[in-house]
Design brief:
251 residues; alpha/beta; Rossmann fold; eight-stranded mixed β-sheet; 11 helices; hydrolase; AB_hydrolase_fold; AB_hydrolase_1; Carboxylesterase_BioH
Length: 251
């Protein structure tokens, strides 16, 4: 495991790494998740093995530190990932990013374009104020102390055992602030940033999640949108073959 300091108080963002050829692939997880749990089984596939791979845990999640005075906005998450990539000597990376991690990846590509050569986004959040059915909206609907003291346990029970297995490792306050930051979105909003980027961009949408809003506009901006059959939000679990093919660029 490796680490880098991402704030003035010595807090660390941590990642595990598989050595290999450049450009590196950097895997970013979603809200309440961990990168290795969601992506290591994909990176180990024969068509993807041999490439340097980093599994980053965002601040407040997994193995990374969870400072109480950190804001956990999309911009702050992106800057922390940039610190890790700088420390690892990574430039021109392919970012494979899921859900909230996709929003972070878009912001990172905008703020530090030299770090990113390609984006593979899985059901990334593109707009502020997601629908009330989204988990982030449900978390952010509560005041922070109310969520930490009373609602956190209820959310863990409601999301089911698979997501709860990683969500319980996230700091409750960091989880809430990350959800609030995700609901607020970036400025300009993530969708606008994504449309303006010039790197190779792929967006994976699970078939069971329904049609991607604004698909035609994204495609007109050069984003390749792929509907993955038999998959919901967690495409890497529901259809790992299609997911791996998209990461490898052979789909």
């Amino acid at each position: 495991m490796q680490q880098a300091t991402f704030d003035s108080r010595g807090s660390h963002i941590r990642w595990t790494e598989v050595p290999g050829a450049d450009p590196a692939r950097v895997y970013l997880h979603g809200l309440g998740s961990m990168s290795a749990v969601y992506h290591a089984h994909i990176a180990a596939r024969p068509g993807l093995a041999g490439r340097r791979s980093l599994f980053e845990d965002l601040p407040g999640h997994g193995t990374s530190d969870r400072p109480a005075d950190f804001g956990y906005t999309l911009e702050e998450h992106a800057d922390a990932v940039a610190v890790a990539l700088d420390a690892a000597g990574v430039t021109g990376a392919e970012l494979i990013a899921h859900s909230m991690g996709g929003a972070v990846a878009i912001v990172l590509a905008h703020r530090r374009p030299g770090l990113v050569s390609r984006l593979v986004l899985t059901e990334a959040n593109l707009d502020a104020f997601p629908p009330s059915t989204a988990a982030s909206s449900g978390i952010a609907a509560h005041e922070e102390d109310e969520f930490v003291e009373r609602e956190h346990a209820r959310v863990l029970a409601a999301v089911g055992p698979l997501w709860a297995a990683t969500m319980r490792l996230a700091d409750p306050r960091a989880l809430h602030r990350s959800a609030v930051g995700l609901r607020k979105g970036s400025d300009p909003v993530m969708r606008t940033l994504l449309e303006g980027l010039t790197v190779d961009r792929v967006f994976l949408q699970g078939e069971h999640s329904g049609e991607l809003a604004g698909r035609e506009r994204l495609e007109a901006a050069g984003v390749r949108v792929v509907t993955v059959p038999g998959a919901g939000h967690n495409v890497m679990f529901d259809n790992p073959d299609a997911f791996a093919a998209a990461v490898a660029g052979t789909d």
